[in-house]
Amino acid sequence: MMSRKFELNEAARKAKVDKTRRDMEAKELKQSRKKGKGPSPEVCEQYVALDCEMVGTGVSGRHSALAQCCITDWHGNTLYCSYVRPPERVTDFRTFVSGIRATHLKGADAVTLLECQKAVAAITKGRIIVGHALHNDLKALMLSHPKNMIRDTATYRPYKRPNRAGKLAPRSLKHLALEFLGREIQGGEHSPAEDAIAAMDLFKLKWAEWETSLKQGRVGKKAGASKPVRQIA
């Protein structure tokens, strides 16, 4: 009985500590924006955030194809956002998650995959891309990017947590945003612009230590590289 009571008290204490940390980090982020603290404008220019939405093609929509791509800057301004017409016939719009509908891809604003590739390549050239599980986005875009110029919040060690096997595993962007930013996202249909901004804000929270650890070689490829990952809550 005492052991059970101790466990409950310890869990409550830990939850309180976690909430305090989240509140402090969210407050620091807000204050840094107001006071203009952080990297210089020149350094901020080096970073862009990328997020894409995919639809299903082929039998039962099992294959993913790019349908929307958004790029935002350090401050959350939209640099590029467009619907993309997949070259294959769409068999599953995945609207409940992607937010994509047939009208979006038939509209005059939708571009071809090639047009999107050219625009994204031009914007990201020589810049560091920030995102979450960027492997999926780059695969959909059919583009590559230098591994040392990728900052992936899905593979960054401090943003992981142990799974049931005791190994560190990636967490979803939705849960990271709620825990570290105090922000609710992906409540229904996803917004690639919103997701890109959330990934950038998560990166900004850890910017100094992230870049320092990369320079010192403590994080290495795992922090920079983006690989297919299975996320946990």
TrEMBL record:
It is found in: Nucleus. GO terms for cellular component: nucleus. GO terms for biological process: rRNA processing. GO terms for molecular function: 3'-5' exonuclease activity; nucleic acid binding. Keywords: Exonuclease, Hydrolase, Nuclease, Nucleus, rRNA processing. Residues 46-212 form the Exonuclease domain. Residues 1-41 are annotated as: Disordered. InterPro entries: REX4_DEDDh_dom, REXO1/3/4-like, Ribonucl_H, RNaseH-like_sf, RNaseH_sf. CDD domains: REX4_like. Residues 1-31 have a biased composition (Basic and acidic residues). Its main location: nucleus. Belongs to the REXO4 family. PANTHER family: RNA EXONUCLEASE 4 (PTHR12801:SF45), RNA EXONUCLEASE REXO1 / RECO3 FAMILY MEMBER-RELATED (PTHR12801). Exoribonuclease involved in ribosome biosynthesis. Involved in the processing of ITS1, the internal transcribed spacer localized between the 18S and 5.8S rRNAs. This is RNA exonuclease 4. It comes from Tribonema minus. The lineage of its organism: Eukaryota, Sar, Stramenopiles, Ochrophyta, PX clade.
